[in-house]
Amino acid sequence: xAKRFVSIWFPHLVxxxxxxxxxxxxxxxxxxxxxxxxxxVITSSNAIARNEGIYNGMALxxxxxxxxxxxxxxxxxxxxxxxLLKIAEWCIRFSPFVSIDPPDGxxxxxxxxxxxxxxxxYYKTTITQRLKKNxxxxxxxxxxxxxxxxxxxxxxxxxFIIKRGQHTNALLALPPQALRLDADTIDKxxxxxxxxxxxxxxxxxxxxxxRFGLQLIEKLNQAFGTEEETIRPVQPVELYEExxxxxxxxxxxxxxxxxxxxxxxxxxxxxxREQKGLRKAVFKCFCIDGRIEIIEIGTNHASHNASHxxxxxxxxxxAIRPELGIELFALIAPKVEDVQPLQQKIWEKTGGxxxxxxxxxLDRIAGKAGENCIHRYLPxxxxxxERSIKRASTLNEKLTTEWIVDKPRPxxxxxxxEKIAVTAPIPDYPPMNFRYKGKLHTIAKADGPxxxxxxxxxxxxxHRDYYYVEDEEGNRYWLxxxxxxxxxxxxxxxxxxxx
Length: 499
Hints:
CATH superfamily of the largest domain: Reverse transcriptase/Diguanylate cyclase domain
Largest sheet: 7 strands, antiparallel
CATH architecture of the largest domain: 2-Layer Sandwich
Shape: elongated
Number of helices: 13
Strand order of the largest sheet: 14-20-19-18-17-16-15
CATH topology of the largest domain: Alpha-Beta Plaits
Distance between the termini: 65 Å
Number of domains: 3
CATH class of the largest domain: Alpha Beta
Number of strands: 20
């Protein structure tokens, strides 16, 4: 796929930002200044000041001599970088691959993006109008290479959308500054009368290298596309992402649902073709006022079932606040896994924990009740009951030891046994009654004891003698005596409840 890049130039970035904060500066000559080598110099100026002959690098005193009513402010270090980063993050609505281009630009990789806005012209117009509406003066160019887009945005005249394969012709008439060269190289070129790229582009590269250094060769190759140039996005680009721009802002729940369904169909078809499924999905809504509304869901199994995933999102759509409207929707799958078809067993109708219907049911419950409300437990290799289970990390985690099924165990097990007062005959008879939380329970039936020893590798506590008891009301409990009856140091505890 042929690359297309967008260069956005902010000729008055910092002064535009100050003007947004202080509207009274709108129609006044305004500059930003900072100390440099013992004097105060101008680092940024607005369009009105530029028209009065005031330029960056000029001493502030000289500027005030030219234009006495000049307004100024001290530069705050890092302001330009912070502004570029904030604007670049906002520009992600136009391209997932956005990078800052200090000190006054942004680069978008618009490959396979412009058609989402109809065509390149409308894409460029939309970005221009939105940024100008936000108060920034900008110049935008679209070309096949980063270098060509950068050059045309700053030095172009007339045509700012360069057709595919025409970036070479667009560069020829531009000055050497358009190649992003250092000041010394530019000065050498101008002294030799090489004031346009066409004046030296056909010279032997070896001669250019000897006279002007490797930088000129590198910048020429990057601008003309013979050497690849990379940029670093402000946010990592997700491999599985689908986008849907809107011709008109969407502000209704129905419109949001339709957009989500279309994105899910596209993304799930792609995942199915690649035999993959998502474990996590993020739905982003880019609002006109600059906000980004985000909802996300997770699944227990990798899934590309669009209808199931939509049901998980459906309960959260009400949390989206479109306000003035949403101009772009994006669906991202940051966590994707391979989907392996399950081997069906000829004599079994269900798939146990591998049953996809069970996984989808748990997904829907988690979406309504919360992910932390559903847990699966596995047997652990410990003797004492409260240590004999552990929480599974996944729904289909395999057993490392078998469940105890030959002896009864309570459905509800207290995490920490609670002390009780017990009346019991001697030496190992079941208790006759016990008092728990102020209520006396008279035992009608009992079975036991089942001795569970302490774990020799831990050596903590005494052995336990467990009894299964039922009171006169038919409620069943799991009690135990800790320690030998003859030691007079024994204690009774309640540990669980049977259904």
